[in-house]
Design brief:
This is 8-oxo-dGTP pyrophosphatase MutT (NUDIX family). With about 200 residues, the protein is α+β, with helices and mostly antiparallel strands. It has three helices and ten strands; from the N terminus they run E-E-E-E-E-E-E-H-E-E-E-H-H. Strand 5 and strand 6 form a beta hairpin. Helix 2 packs across helix 3. The termini are far apart. The mean pLDDT is about 95.
Length: about 200
């Protein structure tokens, strides 16, 4: 038995579904041990971003919106997909974060801090998500939602939200939870460095 991990070999690949939001790639694979896995469906999404806007008083700006996958109104972060025009400005993920912050909240930020990049689900998704902290917020206008999108904004204490997540009083997308913990860690570090 070979204990060394190796990628699977792909013997055939075809697009079985595609629209503007998602592409489903169906691969026929063979593992390093010779086991055939066919078909294995991969969800090709564009890369995603999420943003944690921090108000001057320290509260974070969260969203509530209907999420059809769960059929529920869900608490979350400003979030979205990278679009083709985002890559024209250099860092496409940061451009997407700026755009989504403005569109969903009507705010702009003077500073964006990259908190982390992670895989939404490396088992079946090909994309990555980059989480940003948005600081130095100022009102830039009214939100401009995509068709079918309606977002409710609320301001919350970060420690209180993390406590509600730990107690189970609130459930959020796992990518958003990871970003909130990364934001809390970054803000705590900045505060302790400011005290030195």
């Amino acid at each position: 038995m070979n204990d060394e991990l190796k990628p699977w070999s792909v013997t055939a690949s075809r697009i079985t579904y595609e629209d503007r939001w998602i592409r489903v790639r169906s691969d026929d694979c063979i593992t390093a041990d010779g086991i055939v896995v066919a078909p294995f469906h991969v969800l090709d999404y564009p890369d995603w971003i999420n943003v944690i806007p921090v108000m001057p008083d320290g509260r974070v700006l969260l969203t509530r919106e209907y999420r059809h996958g769960r059929g529920e109104i869900v608490l979350g972060l400003v979030a979205g997909s990278l679009e083709p025009g985002d890559s024209k400005t250099g860092d496409a993920a940061m451009a997407a974060a700026e755009r989504e912050l403005r569109e969903e909240t009507g705010y702009q930020a003077s500073t964006f801090v990259k908190l982390l990049t992670s895989y939404p689900n490396a088992a079946s998704h090909s994309n990555m998500v980059t989480s940003w902290l948005a600081l130095g917020l100022s009102r830039a206008g009214e939100p401009s939602f995509d068709p079918g999108e309606k977002v409710e904004l609320l301001f919350a204490d970060l420690a209180a939200i993390l406590g509600e997540l730990q107690s189970g009083a609130v459930i959020m997308q796992s990518m958003h939870v990871a970003a909130l913990y990364a934001a809390e860690s970054w803000l705590r570090r900045q505060a302790s460095e400011g005290l030195k």
